[in-house]
Amino acid sequence: MLYKFRLPAFRAFYLLGFVLFASTHPVYSQQPTPYTSFKPGGEWLDTDGKHIDCHGGNIIYVDSLKTYYWYGEHRGVPRGASCYSSKDLYNWKNEGAVLEKGTIETFERPKVVYDATKDQYVMWFHFDGNRYTLAELGVAVSKSPTGPFVVQHHERPNGHESRDIGMYVDPETKKAYIGYAADHTNRTIRMVELSGDYLSTTTNDVDIEAHCEGPGILKKKGTYYLLTSGCSGWTPNPATYYTATNILGPYTKQGNPFVGDAGNNSFNSQPCYIFKIPGYRDAYLYMGDRWNGGGRPDSQYVFLPITITEDGKMELHWYKEWDLSMFTPEREKR
Ligand code: DGJ
């Protein structure tokens, strides 16, 4: 028997109201309460409420999209590079795996830059075998910031071993450089200039006699600051910074920039990148990994402000919680 179901008008009205309320009210969604600060070393969830799995990477800001993109090692499944996007640096949406490592045995420390000449995103990474003896750089490209990135080639830059990498694009010249832990299991850091399209290394490649992993670079008032960790596997150690007036050196060793670091282990972290936050004066964001002894997918991040003091010293201080109000917006007078 055919049966007609009729909902009285007032019930339909209440049902519609409930559906609208449920779909817009946060209590019915999986998202955690939006963050308004950084909590270094703390639990950091993406907008789906899942642990952010994005280690050893970097952040870029894409002005045309008014969006930050955070790239890093996706240490869970699938192994490779992950990408998260954000409008405020606190709340990150998972954009998924932008490069699956496939047959690459070791894929570490991806760094992405935008190349305006070919309108594409270029990712460099540590390409290796399972015992870190291949020691190469790999490069991949994508037309979109959210991938997919396609591997182009891998190489030993000018014949040198290459493991941990850092990248720096000079905002004035747009030239890009890779600082890489090189030779004799990372006994030194070399700095190599890239071609204009960022797709290959040039022979401008020098030993800058800095020790020895996790290089991060910033520039202030014509001085380059290179921050590096020591070499102790996944265990944190005291960092060292160096300064130079030319990115290719010579560099002068300055010391440990972590102030009041009781554990003498870079606040239990290893550097992976220094991000200059656009729109704020001298806003340098230290990005560090808290590997927790073994590069697990659920290891944490230590993000802290980097200060360059009036007399040109690099300093990092511990904050249990902090936010961007610590920096002066560029348009405001001091
Ligand atoms: C230290 C490096 O910084 C990490 O990226 C990773 O390669 C570990 N060593 C492996 O022990």
TrEMBL record:
MF annotations from Gene Ontology: hydrolase activity, hydrolyzing O-glycosyl compounds
Signal peptide: 1-29
Keywords: Glycosidase, Hydrolase, Signal
Classification via InterPro entries: Glyco_hydro_43 (IPR006710), Glyco_hydro_beta-prop_sf (IPR023296)
Keyword Metal-binding: no
Domain of life assignment: Bacteria
Biological process annotations from GO: carbohydrate metabolic process
Family statement drawn from the similarity comment of this UniProt entry: Belongs to the glycosyl hydrolase 43 family.
Protein name: Family 43 glycosylhydrolase
Classification lineage: Bacteria, Pseudomonadati, Bacteroidota, Cytophagia, Cytophagales
